[in-house]
Design brief:
GO terms for molecular function: methyltransferase activity. The chain is an alpha/beta fold and 354 residues long. The protein contains 15 helices and nine strands.
């Protein structure tokens, strides 16, 4: 056996303890979100475990252990003098304010769903086959929608669409928009609310997602101006769209090149295709240094790659494909102008035109 560097081993063990502490927090954070524990501390103020349990009709002994776990995680603040637990403003941004750009409960839901899907993905390692979207675990699509929603709420109207040349003015005047791979419809409904003169159709190949999207549209009173339809990207009826949007899904498609060619056929000559994709370098050696890439590579292993390999062609771009690979896919379909319109900590936004 090669000589072991004791210092390096010690540092690695410390790192693993931190990682495992985060992993062990997944079920307790989910309980705190689902039972309203974080919300109550944010809404009603600091509380002892007994007070918090009384507010929510829960068992005090469980609440006490949960609160100590979250204080140890750094997710709650503990005041030893009073025995009360509270949420700091920063902690509230992550756990109790749904429209915060840093609201993260959806990420914990994704982690749980990836663990639930492990047996099917593990089998796919042996066969090389894929795992169809929606088949790996009970509500992965719900968790993914919740994970991406804060980014859409805080960036889509404020930064991403304004970064496209002349598109805001067209949307304000009245444009036809296709949101391809719309999932449960959060992105589509945000755009429809912001631009009431435009018409929006969301498409997704996953029927349960479209069912939820239609329910969300009805709940927001937008059913008359927003439509959601179940259709694979390459089977969407040809149309004259001013704008096609695609949020975090091109890399999930089995045939992204065929999809890109179909987007070209759907677009008006002066229209734009906006692609939001996970941010990544073209060089793996740079990505592996990034905590964001760490999330995306693991999610890609469990979600994105199996989803692509379950479809025809099965190119398997992965969530860290990088801009050069994406440009190759887009340009290969006949788009002559591709640029990075803007970016954020988690995403790059590409604008493609004919």
């Amino acid at each position: 056996m090669a000589d072991v560097d004791g210092d390096k081993l010690h540092q690695l063990v410390l790192k693993m303890l931190g990682d495992l502490g985060g992993a062990f927090s997944v079920p307790t954070v989910r309980i705190g979100c689902r039972l309203g524990l974080f919300d109550s501390l944010h809404r009603d103020g600091a509380a002892t475990p007994a007070e918090l349990a009384d507010r929510l009709g829960l068992a005090e002994r469980y609440v006490r252990e949960w609160a100590l776990a979250q204080a140890t995680n750094g997710y709650l603040t503990y005041e030893a003098e009073t025995g009360r637990f509270s949420l700091s403003p920063e902690q509230a941004m992550i756990f109790a304010i749904p429209d915060s750009p840093f609201y993260m409960p959806g990420a914990f839901e994704c982690a749980a769903e990836m663990i639930a899907g492990q047996p099917k993905v593990e089998q796919a390692f042996r066969t090389g086959e894929g795992v169809a979207w929606g088949d790996s675990s009970a509500c992965l699509f719900c968790a993914v929608g919740a994970f991406f929603r804060p980014g859409y709420v805080n960036s889509l109207i404020q930064a991403w669409l304004p970064a496209l040349d002349g598109m805001v003015e067209r949307l304000e005047a009245g444009a036809d928009v296709a949101d391809v791979g719309c999932g449960v419809g959060f992105s589509t409904l945000l755009m429809a609310t912001a631009y009431p003169n435009s018409r929006f159709t969301g498409y997704d190949f996953h029927a349960p997602s479209i069912e939820q999207a239609n329910a969300h549209a009805a709940a927001h009173g937008l059913s008359g101006r927003v439509r959601f339809e179940t259709a694979p990207a390459k089977e969407i009826p040809s149309g004259d769209f001013d704008l096609i949007t695609m949020f975090d899904c091109l890399h999930d498609m089995g045939d992204p090149r065929g999809c890109a060619a179909h987007m070209r056929a759907m677009l008006k000559p002066d229209g734009a295709w906006m692609l939001v994709e996970p941010i990544a370098s073209d060089r793996p050696e740079e990505n592996i240094k990034s905590p964001v890439s760490r999330l995306f590579y693991n999610a890609s292993t469990m979600i994105c790659l199996p989803t692509s390999l379950a479809q025809e062609v099965g190119e398997g771009l992965g969530a860290q494909a990088g801009e050069a690979k994406l440009r190759d896919v887009i340009a290969g379909a006949g788009f002559t102008r591709v640029r990075r319109a803007t970016e954020g900590p988690f995403n790059m936004v590409l604008e493609a035109r004919l």
